[in-house]
Amino acid sequence: MKLRDLLANGEGQTTEFKKSLSLRREALEALCAMVNAEGARGTVVFGVEPNGTICGIESGNLDTAQRSLSQAIRGGFDPPLHAEIWVEELEGKQLLLLSAERPRSVPYHEYNGRAWIRQGSEKRQLTLSEKDQLRRSRDRAFHPGPWKCDRCGARVGQLISVTVSKDGMKKNYDCSCGGQFWPCT
After folding, report:
1. Terminus of the chain with fewer CB atoms < 10 Å: N or C?
2. 12-35: per-residue pLDDT in tens?
3. Rg (the chain; Cα; Å)
4. Domains and CATH numbers, the chain
5. Residue 153, class by beta-carbon neighbours within 10 Å (0-12 exposed, 13-18 middle, 19+ buried)?
6. Taking the complete model, does pTM exceed 0.85, yes or no?
């Protein structure tokens, strides 16, 4: 999505604005909440007021700011979260963008020991029972179905293909098109 479109749509399920890099903790909690929601992705834009007004990020060393943000992500997320960080200029002001997506194989991420989830443009902390529910509903080994292929979109109610080896039974998640079946909601 283009930056102007992202800003025009405002804050929501997958977008958060932060006016300053000093709001890093809040931004990373919001990113955690967005990737833990059903959309499994999110973008934080630094240098934009919550109402969408472009203010730009503080002048200084952008390389250092990006490195510091990257270190906070590496050290704060469990399991590790792969995020992209880049700078764009708009209306003569620099904005720093941070974007990430939760892999399907990860039921949820925690940031600094807490799991957050996004509902609209708000975040809230997950309870233990909610984390357990996400683990069960998103873990292919425990999910009863239905299933959807990530490549062709085929849906099945149950996975009936299993492989039996000396290590026990194992479900086969491969679709005939070459994609893989994942739990669908």
Report:
1. C
2. 999 999 999 999 999 999 999 999
3. 19
4. 3-135 (3.30.950.30), 142-183 (no CATH)
5. exposed
6. no
